[in-house]
Design a protein that fits this description.
By secondary structure, the protein is mostly helical. It has two domains: about 90 residues, 434 Repressor (Amino-terminal Domain), CATH 1.10.260; about 80 residues. About 70% of the residues lie in helices and about 0% in strands. The chain contains eight helices and no strands. Helix 1 crosses helix 3, helix 2 packs across helix 3 and helix 2 packs across helix 4. It is rod-shaped, with a radius of gyration of 29 Å.
């Protein structure tokens, strides 16, 4: 299993490097590492590269440090635990987290607006029912219980979505749990 992960790691790094049009030597220079080490990582010969090397590669190629660590075989404890996690996050990781927060923010705004529309519809239904009751009182007519019940039965299902909790699967992705 580790070999498969390392091979995938090498492929991801090699493709990202080539996409940027830089050589292994240039990647090594920008990442503060030896060119032979870049070659070993890309070819899958280096088992579990040093985290500092992965950090340099992630920053240079604008890749997720977390993704690279997972591909290199680091487990969740290696990735998420420790006193200083800043060396385990790349700019791409932080950019992804910001995108996640932005999406969450706009999803919540949309959800609130939908719930607000429902609230206005319910308010309109209740106001309509009150008006009918008051008009019946003024005209000294009886409004049947069935009419009132039918209208209330229409309004109750409209309330249900507003009583539901927000979908936690839409919460922003956090590195630290």
């Amino acid at each position: 299993m580790a070999k498969k992960n390392i091979t995938e790691l090498g492929k991801v790094i090699s493709e990202a490097r080539q996409k940027l049009g830089i050589s292994q030597r240039e990647l090594a220079r920008q990442s503060n590492m030896d060119c032979a080490e870049v070659s070993r990582i890309e070819s899958g010969k280096r088992l579990k590269p040093n985290v500092l090397y992965l950090k340099g590669i992630a920053e240079t190629l604008n890749l997720s440090m977390v993704d690279l660590m997972k591909l290199a075989g680091y487990d969740d404890i290696d990735i998420n635990w420790g006193k200083d996690l800043t060396n385990k996050r790349s700019i791409a990781d932080y950019q992804n987290q910001i995108k996640s927060y932005n999406q969450f923010y706009f999803d919540i705004l949309e959800e609130l607006e939908n719930r607000r529309k429902i609230d206005f519809a319910i308010k309109g239904g209740i106001t309509d029912l009150i008006d009918k009751l008051e008009l019946a009182k003024i005209e000294e007519k009886n409004l049947s219980n069935d009419e009132i019940l039918d209208r209330l039965k229409e309004l109750i299902p409209m309330i249900r979505p507003n009583l539901e909790k927000f979908d936690k699967s839409k919460y922003p992705h956090l590195f630290l749990k």
